[in-house]
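Q: Trace token order:
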Amino acid sequence: MNNRIQQVTHKIRQEVAKAIVGQQDTLDLLLVGLFSGGHVLLEDVPGVGKTVLAKSLAASIGCEFTRLQCTPDLLPSDVVGTTVFNQQTSSFEFRQGPLFSQLVLADEINRAIPRTQAALLEAMAEGQITVDGASRPLDRPFFVIATQNPIESHGTFPLPEAQLDRFLMKISLGYPTLEEERTIFRYSREGRSSATVEPVVTPDEIVQAMEDVRRIRFAPDVEHYLLEIVRRTREHDGIRIGVSPRGLIALGAAAQALAGIRGRDYVIPDDIQELAAPVLTHRLALDPSMRIKQKGADHLLAEILEDIVPVPVEDDAAGASR
């Protein structure tokens, strides 16, 4: 089971590397989101490769790909579809919108009006779309990658907490290293920046990997460690609203996916620690006093991980899982 997940991951990594230099850690996080049935919010400055990465991932897994360029005039019906009258058949027909896809890139999602942002909510949370009282299921896998620019506020509509909570993770690509940027620059001069990514796995293989991930096990001590982290976010003096049960489930599912990617059929504490920040920080509401102390959600979560919660031993986690 774990070897199957690893094989799928390896194929995708190799193929995506044709178009993307570096960013393996970010790609692994996207695969965590994909394999665990979640969705990912990429927040970073323009020009670091967010769109290319999403398109390359979609191409490598042979999924139907749709890009939504979010603007203030984008309406919900433009996203989910609408019912129209067909004069030839004298009947009403539903015409699917671009959200009926398998991998959806919602580019600059915070430029869409709240009504349009909300149109994504049901699809992301339930894997279906309801229009005119009729619910229509979405094909699996269904994976949304949304991007937003953190440095611009003019003409944007910040995502509300309910919408943020639908994203499994909020991550940033960051700038490439010196050597990675040198390679990117040379590839662009050689015309290699537009490398074609081919399908190396099928959507059915992705769905099978998603099923395998759900069978990855938690030892009782590791499960308690996860529960304790979430509970402490609700008790920390600097945190006004802690992680909800949905956030707990999200961190557990993400840890299972990362364990599978790393070739294990059990979760270890390192999996939880590595994913705690991208999965939990956007779910925390801080006390206003933290602004004065210049402490962000990352800092407070690090305090919980490093100083408050005792870490179980990895050997015990492996042994108890068997």
